[in-house]
Amino acid sequence: MHAGSCLCGAITFTVAGDLPPPAVCHCSQCRKQSGHCFASTEVPTSALTIADEHSLAWYQSSEKARRGFCASCGSTLFWAPLHDDKIAVAMGAFDKPTGTTIGMHIYVADKGDYYDITDGLPQRAAS
Q1: What is the largest CA-CA distance in the chain?
Q2: What residue stretch is flagged as signal peptide (predicted)?
Q3: Is there a domain that residue 45 lies in?
Q4: What pLDDT does residue 127 have?
């Protein structure tokens, strides 16, 4: 079980089971929402339990997905495809060590020009 929350603590959640290796997304939407790139782990929606959703807000960022964030503090928490039973959970929102490491970088063709990716992990131009 992995617990997490937003910055102000208004939204708390747990993820049951092991966390798959996270991906780091460098697409322009993730960069604009997070201020850089977005590291997340994708889990079945049934593995995610959100304890209190009163501050959870959703923004439909495309015809394919929506992004969940805290309406109180603005923390980026989730990326959810509209027609799938998986959800991506922000790695930075977990409270304790996760026991996983980054597995790959995605949408690197869209990455910012102010940094390089030099960790030797697999890179995909798109998803």
Answers
A1: 41
A2: none
A3: yes
A4: 79
Is residue 22 a contact partner of residue 35, using CB atoms and an 8 Å limit? no
Q: How far apart, in whole angstroms, are the C-alpha atoms of residue 15 and residue 76?
A: 16
The two structure tokens encoding residue 63: 């015809």
For the chain, how big is the Rg over CA atoms in Å? 14
Residue 87 contacts residue 80 (beta carbons within 8 Å): yes
Give pLDDT < 50 ranges for the chain: none
Q: What is the CATH number of the domain that holds 74?
A: 2.170.150.70
pTM of the model as a whole: 0.94
- In whole angstroms, give the CA distance from residue 46 to residue 58: 18
Q: Tell me how many domains the chain contains.
A: 1
Give the other-Cβ count within 10 Å of 9's Cβ. Answer: 13
